[in-house]
Amino acid sequence: MATILVVDDDPAIRQLLTDVLEMDGHVVAVAVDGHDGLRAFEVIRPDFVILDVMMPGLDGYGVLRDIRGQEGDPVPVLMLTAGADGDSASRGWAGGVDYYLAKPFAADDILDLVEDALGASHSGL
């Protein structure tokens, strides 16, 4: 079981991800925008972050930059975007994102990426 932080301004996406991840045995915390996501990251110290790119206020790239600026072991980050173009993906990779996935996505894709990132370190928990 891992603690996963979902940062997305779309309530339907937050709920879908929460349901899918909790059914897989994870603890899920949610944040409604980038600033809320950074506050939650500081308090929760999640094992994995799912981060929307386009949000009001602080976008996903800003959140990623601040997460990558933290001391300690880097937390795996998956960025979700409705606008999956080459420039957007390049900006994410340059910022240090671990995974990048276009919306709409399949729930199994999310679970596979979480397992890929955390499977070895969280197996048997």
UniProtKB/TrEMBL annotation:
<keyword id="KW-0804">Transcription</keyword>
<keyword id="KW-0805">Transcription regulation</keyword>
<dbReference type="InterPro" id="IPR011006">
    <property type="entry name" value="CheY-like_superfamily"/>
</dbReference>
<keyword id="KW-0597">Phosphoprotein</keyword>
<feature type="modified residue" description="4-aspartylphosphate">
    <location>
        <position position="52"/>
    </location>
</feature>
<dbReference type="InterPro" id="IPR050595">
    <property type="entry name" value="Bact_response_regulator"/>
</dbReference>
<protein>
    <submittedName>
        <fullName>DNA-binding response OmpR family regulator</fullName>
    </submittedName>
</protein>
<dbReference type="InterPro" id="IPR001789">
    <property type="entry name" value="Sig_transdc_resp-reg_receiver"/>
</dbReference>
<feature type="domain" description="Response regulatory">
    <location>
        <begin position="3"/>
        <end position="118"/>
    </location>
</feature>
<dbReference type="GO" id="GO:0003677">
    <property type="term" value="F:DNA binding"/>
</dbReference>
<keyword id="KW-0238">DNA-binding</keyword>
<dbReference type="Pfam" id="PF00072">
    <property type="entry name" value="Response_reg"/>
</dbReference>
<dbReference type="GO" id="GO:0000160">
    <property type="term" value="P:phosphorelay signal transduction system"/>
</dbReference>
<keyword id="KW-0902">Two-component regulatory system</keyword>
